[in-house]
Automatic annotation (TrEMBL):
This is IGSF5 protein. The gene is Igsf5. It comes from Circaetus pectoralis (black-chested snake-eagle). Pfam families: I-set. GO terms for cellular component: bicellular tight junction; cell surface. Residues 14-123, 124-216 form the Ig-like domain. InterPro entries: Ig-like_dom (IPR007110), Ig-like_dom_sf (IPR036179), Ig-like_fold (IPR013783), Ig_I-set (IPR013098), Ig_sub (IPR003599). GO terms for biological process: cell-cell adhesion.
Length: 224
């Protein structure tokens, strides 16, 4: 056994001592519930044990001499080794809203850690009750778009014939749903002068494209 004093501190190991560090830690991620989340942690040569934690709870351990120790099917890993570093990729399967929070990569010997944050978002439902509405000339109507079961609360916008409608023409109210989810109710007020297609859009960061619901407003000229 040899005793070694390095920049990493004073410790002993059978044989040679190693000084190693976390080269790069995990990066923040935003994903939709039910999908995968992936985080990388790269350490220099000489590492012995690496522990992944989710909100302070150990979920996966990687030991140099034997590989990953997986205790749950939801938390697995892939490993990548180069001549001067080792990368552990934590994969969280079937992400849930409760997985949101701090994801930490920790090396046990020197109490060194690096962390990132996971945001799991929920794509809820979006609908307008009527698919078509018939409106007479000089008639003002209200069209209601409802978003249920989202996390976080979605950003609601409206479009008509591929053009965004000014925000002054609609009002959106948000409310707390169950299980940490959010609801939104958006009411658009307008006086049609022609037949048009109206689209309500709901967006959150994790969605590649906003979810949408449409209604066709059929304008009827009273002279006819």
């Amino acid at each position: 056994v040899v005793y070694v004093f390095t920049d990493c501190g004073f410790f002993f190991l059978p044989g040679l001592g190693f000084c190693y560090s976390i080269i790069s830690g995990p990066a923040n991620a935003t994903v939709l519930a039910g999908s995968e989340a992936r985080f990388n942690c790269t350490v220099s040569v000489g590492w012995v044990i690496l522990i992944w934690l989710s909100n302070g709870n150990p979920v996966l351990t990687v030991i140099n001499s034997q590989g990953a120790v997986e205790t749950s099917d939801r938390f697995t890993s892939q490993n990548y080794t180069s001549s001067n570093s080792f990368t552990s990729e934590l994969i969280i399967h079937n992400t849930q809203l409760s997985d949101s929070g701090k994801i930490e990569c920790s090396t046990q010997q020197h109490s060194e850690n690096s962390f990132a944050f996971l945001s799991v978002q929920v794509n809820g439902s979006l609908f307008i009750k009527n698919s078509t509405l018939t409106v007479k000339e000089n008639k003002t109507i209200e069209i209601v778009c409802e978003a249920l079961g989202w996390a976080p609360a979605p950003d609601i916008t409206w479009m008509t014939n591929d053009s965004f409608i000014d925000k002054s023409r609609y009002v959106t109210q948000h409310s707390q749903g169950s299980n940490g989810l959010h609801n939104a109710l958006s009411i658009l007020t307008l006086t049609p002068t022609d037949t048009e297609i109206l689209t309500c859009l709901a967006d959150i960061e994790a969605l590649p494209n906003p979810q949408n619901a449409t209604v066709t407003v059929i304008f009827v000229n009273s002279a006819l």
